[in-house]
Amino acid sequence: MKISVQRYRATGSLKNSLRKRLVSSRSIIPALSIATLIMLACLHIWQRVHVMNLVSEVTVLESENKSLTDLVRKADMEITELSCLSRIEPIATKELGLSKTGSENIFTLTMDEDETEPEGLDEVVSSLKKIADNFPVLNESRAATRDIFESDDE
């Protein structure tokens, strides 16, 4: 038992003496400062490399975004070209055998309305609905196509 206690004390004193020597040594502070400078330099180099990689990724993504935007513009222009009335009329007449209708072929259908007339607010709402039914319809694709052509004209 005495031997093990002595060995324990010897290792403890060895650790303490090593610590004391390192702290009292004149070279520990310059060694730590040099190690810190090397670590900071490595960190700075890694950061620069990482930033350069991110910049290259951003340029690749920007070029891909431009090409996709061009494809969308081309598709919208093609849609507009294909839906042009001057293109559709010859196809309708030649391939489908359709023709323009004259006034003799147009019939007006009238519906007998209920005998009860709307009063007050109901009358205003029904008249606004009738007006709204006659407005032209503008959906998202036509609005987007119109925006593209307006931006090209400027």
Short description:
This protein has 154 residues and is mainly α. It has five helices and no strands.
Core attributes:
single chain; 154 residues; mainly alpha; 5 helices
Structure description:
The protein starts with a helix and ends with a helix. It has helices at residues 2-24, 28-82, 85-94, 121-133, 140-153. The chain has 154 residues and is an all-alpha fold. 0% of the residues are buried. It is elongated, with a radius of gyration of 42 Å. Helix 2 (28-82) packs across helix 5 (140-153). It contains five helices and no strands.
Helix content: over 70%
- Give the radius of gyration: 42 Å
Poorly predicted spans: none
Measured by DSSP, the beta-strand proportion falls in under 5%
Mean pLDDT: 80
Instruction: Report how far apart the termini are.
Output: 97 Å
**Structural class, from helix and strand content?**
mainly alpha
Shape: elongated
Write the H/E string, N to C: HHHHH
Largest sheet: none
Number of helices: 5
The beta-strand count equals 0
